[in-house]
Specification:
The protein has about 110 residues and is mostly beta strands. The protein has no helices and nine strands. It is globular and about 40 Å long.
């Protein structure tokens, strides 16, 4: 078992085309020997966004703080602390910070 505080993990800028004001902490991943799932924390600055994208794996999101929206082809859905988001494989999606403070959320993905 390994225990650490999220603030001990460096928040690295996300340098992917279409990402604006996004940093990510790799909280649990291969360095901890996680065999199946990885946990990441995303931090979006006010006005920040992830790129609109889709991928072959599902992921789950849990909003920790701030306010924002998740964007899908059929529109935007507001999100805030305590909200859970399931993104199915190949679903086009994007996260936006619509508030005045940092939007923080956990993202769980399959290994790889």
């Amino acid at each position: 078992m390994r225990v650490k505080h999220a603030e001990q993990v460096p928040a690295e800028p996300v340098a992917i085309e279409g990402a604006t004001g996004v940093r990510m902490r790799r909280l649990i991943h291969e360095a901890e020997g996680a065999p199946n799932f990885y946990m990441r924390q995303f931090l979006l600055a006010p006005g920040g966004c992830t790129p609109s994208h889709a991928h072959a794996w599902e992921h789950e999101v849990y909003v920790l703080s701030g306010s924002g929206a998740v964007v899908a082809p059929d529109g935007q859905t507001p999100i805030g602390p305590g909200d859970c988001v399931y993104v199915a494989p190949m679903d086009l999606h994007q996260f936006l910070n619509t508030g005045q403070e940092e939007l923080r959320f956990l993202c769980l993905v399959p290994k790889g």
